[in-house]
């Protein structure tokens, strides 16, 4: 049930009466969604200005920094020779 005075709506309202909730959201700026009478989610209008505030993470660069350094050809050769000697 949509309560315009309290700016709340139920999860069922989201499924069945979303156009009304959207109008309420545009008019009020914020709607609290309840589940069995308890508030669970706050809906707000999208603000394009806040988009730049979210820090971007360069996951690949971070992964590369954590990877071990490559072995030189000389060190690889020594390891290969040590492995062959055991066989």
Characterization of this structure:
This protein is an alpha+beta fold and 87 residues long. The protein has a single domain, classed as YefM-like domain (YefM-like fold, 3-Layer(aba) Sandwich). It is 45% helix and 18% strand. The protein has four helices and three strands; from the N terminus they run βααββαα. A three-stranded mixed sheet has the order 1-2-3. A hairpin with a 2-residue loop joins strand 2 and strand 3.
Please describe the structure with a list of short key phrases separated by commas or semicolons.
single chain; about 90 residues; alpha+beta; YefM-like fold; 3-stranded mixed sheet; 4 helices; 3 strands; about 45% helix; rod-shaped
């Amino acid at each position: 049930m949509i309560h315009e005075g309290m700016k709340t709506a139920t999860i069922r309202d989201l499924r069945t009466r979303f156009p009304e909730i959207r109008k309420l959201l545009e008019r009020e700026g914020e709607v609290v969604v309840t589940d069995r009478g308890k508030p669970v989610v706050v809906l707000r209008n999208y603000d394009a200005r806040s988009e730049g505030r979210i820090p971007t993470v360069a996951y690949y660069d971070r992964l590369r920094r954590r990877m071990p350094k490559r072995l030189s050809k000389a060190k690889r050769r020594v390891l290969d020779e040590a492995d062959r000697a055991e066989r």
